[in-house]
């Protein structure tokens, strides 16, 4: 299976709950290495650009407001099948529908405040990693 990289964000609700370490532990115990990380408080412009694919959706304004409501922890995860594996660990977008034991089932409150973001495909992963990390700030996990 291919070694991939994916972009993960621990959203403001989970940072406020003080569960960054618990979420990192799930990545690590499931074979995903953290090969870049930074804490940031996004501007509305950054959050809007990051979620630009959703800009015509009814929830876009609330999504941007939520993403700038506090600091976020942004990381690049590397490992076998990292994109799909991270999405599996995250669980469904709506935490009420997320499988027990997933990050969203365990740490998220609502579809708006849903604890984590993860890239959904190879192309979006590459774009999202480039958006937050210049190549020189991403390290090999091996
Ligand atoms: P993310 O991009 O944050 O990893 O979440 P996702 O792929 O599971 O879901 P996506 O469809 O990309 O939506 C991005 C974020 O917008 C909010 N959302 N609200 N009210 C709604 O129907 C609705 N749908 C999506 C969620 O917070 C979701 O994480
Ligand atoms: Mg998405």
Automatic annotation (TrEMBL):
Does the entry feature the keyword Translocase, yes or no? Answer: no
Where in the numbering of this chain does the Nucleoside diphosphate kinase-like domain appear?
Answer: 3-140
Main subcellular location of this protein, as a coarse class: cytoplasm
| GO aspect biological process, one term | GTP biosynthetic process
Q: Where is the active site?
A: 117 (pros-phosphohistidine intermediate)
* Database matches in HAMAP family: NDP_kinase
Q: In UniProt terms, what function does this protein have?
A: Major role in the synthesis of nucleoside triphosphates other than ATP. The ATP gamma phosphate is transferred to the NDP beta phosphate via a ping-pong mechanism, using a phosphorylated active-site intermediate.
Q: Which family does it belong to?
A: Belongs to the NDK family.
Q: What is the protein name given in its UniProt record?
A: Nucleoside diphosphate kinase
Question: What is the species of this protein?
Answer: Azospira oryzae (strain ATCC BAA-33 / DSM 13638 / PS)
